[in-house]
Amino acid sequence: MSTRPITAAVDGTPESLAALAWAGREAVRRDAPLRVVHAWQWQPHEAITVDRDEQAAWARDALTEAVRAVTARHPGLEVSTDLVEGPPVESLTAAAEHAETLVLGSRGHGAVVGFLLGSVGQQVLVDSPRPVVFVRAGDEASAEAAGREVVVGQHGTPQDSAATLRFAFEAAAARGAGLRAVRAWTLPPLYAYSPGSLKLLDEAGGLEPYERKALAAALQPWRERFPDVPVTEHVEIGSAGQVLLSVAGRAQLMVVGRRARRTAVGARIGSVAHGVLHHAPCPVAVVPHGVGGEA
């Protein structure tokens, strides 16, 4: 059994309850405990006559009801709860530190950039030291039916994507599912062709064979570690986000890496993770680079 729990954040909304249901199934699959966290913060408002104790009671009741539902579906599951009063971002980020995976609800497709996850979800994603899975309201267990793959995006060197590939292989193994590893590539600008890079491309036989060899090299240690996971290697020209979304319809889970950066206007995630989170129809796992990536 994993020593770290699968942790789900709940607040009574449909998307958080879908996240909890997904987390419960994942905990059963991985033989891990489930931790359910409700982070709330009392903010008095002159137009609302609810005091702090009443709001705390609502939060406690929402947590109790959520746990009752998940234990009814999984009676043998080890479940713990945590009712936390404080800023949601800080509370959930702290909860993630002790989790195998943090699972959050997502509102669904958003037309406005930055609206989909909300400020709390996006900030937790940037700050979390552990993988974060986003689950949409209406997600069904039937979407995990046989034949649906775990899809993972691979980029860069084997070391660059090791943490992402590890998470994806573990998820596929726990589900008895196939894994589709996607590596997208684009034609580099002319100034990128240096004598050294041209030599590497010549040795590989061209751009696409080079990309195929790079993907195979990144997958090799994980294929050896998870020999029962069937793997489809998918190399395609195009932007990584577009290529991943083109195969999202066959996925029960999509896994991407995350390298967050901070700017003058706040924290930002990479364009690939951002695009997939906004448009993929399945749950999306975002894995920080460097988290448990050794094969």
UniProtKB/TrEMBL annotation:
Belongs to the universal stress protein A family. Residues 4-136, 150-288 form the UspA domain. It holds the Pfam family Usp. It comes from the Bacteria. Transmembrane segments: none annotated. The lineage of its organism: Bacteria, Bacillati, Actinomycetota, Actinomycetes, Kitasatosporales. This is Universal stress protein.
